Amino acid sequence: MTDECYRFIVTGRVQGVYFRQSTAEQARQLGLNGWVRNLPDGRVEGLVSGPGPALETLKAWMRHGPTLARVDGIQWIINDTQPDALGFEVRR
């Protein structure tokens, strides 16, 4: 099975609510690769790669995020470039 790769941008109350760390934990549990980081404008951006079913599970979780988050929207963009390394990291 070929891995799929997406860039994502999340809007809402997603900074200062443990969103990046929670996303990384979910992605690691699902065996996904990539990274997540805050953007200066209050959004969260990331790159994630892995098997389709695991990505769908992460997408479903990200619609709500951690308890204190309020996700207003997520944009998923197909990406041709895979993450540089294995694992999932929180970038600053």
Automatic annotation (TrEMBL):
PANTHER family: ACYLPHOSPHATASE. Belongs to the acylphosphatase family. Keywords: Hydrolase. Its EC number is 3.6.1.7. The active site is at residues 20, 38. This is Acylphosphatase. InterPro entries: Acylphosphatase, Acylphosphatase-like_dom, Acylphosphatase-like_dom_sf, Acylphosphatase_CS. GO terms for molecular function: acylphosphatase activity. Residues 5-92 form the Acylphosphatase-like domain. The keyword Hydrolase applies. It catalyses: an acyl phosphate + H2O = a carboxylate + phosphate + H(+). Signal peptide: none annotated.
